[in-house]
Specification:
Blueprint lengths: L1 E2 L4 E3 L2 E3 L3 H6 L1 H18 L5 H31 L4 E2 L6 H29 L1
Length: about 120
């Protein structure tokens, strides 16, 4: 997401020509760093599905917070007199949310299948 004044959001944080702008967006930057790290941790927890489901629910909550923070800071930046430059990157958090929900459903289905096989034994 980028703005006309040179401020733009990336995975590594917020970049701007003015360092005071970066200090205003530190919660958004922290969320943008936590979400990908949590995704990588969840991928490698395939052996412990219950903990994987728990972390996936935290991931969904984090992505929702990321979307809310992005909307809040977008309107905060627009109020300062700069305009929003629309791009494809605005859709990525919504896609992350959709895919995280689908991952949670898949993990839950796998856990149900394993439980049903345990009952048959």
């Amino acid at each position: 997401m980028s703005f006309e004044n040179g401020t733009y959001f990336t995975i590594s944080g917020i970049h701007s020509v003015d360092s005071s702008v970066i200090q205003q967006y530190w919660p958004f930057t922290i969320l943008m760093l936590i979400v990908p790290v949590l995704c990588l941790v969840i991928i490698f927890l395939y052996g412990n599905r219950k903990f994987q489901m728990l972390l996936t629910s935290f991931l969904i909550f984090g992505i929702v917070l990321l979307i809310i923070a992005g909307i809040y800071y977008t309107f905060f930046t627009i109020k300062t007199g700069t305009g929003l430059v629309f791009g494809v990157k605005l859709i990525l958090p919504i896609l992350m949310l959709i895919f995280s929900i689908l991952a949670y459903r898949g993990i839950r289905k796998d856990e149900a299948i394993v439980r049903s096989y345990d009952r048959l034994r």
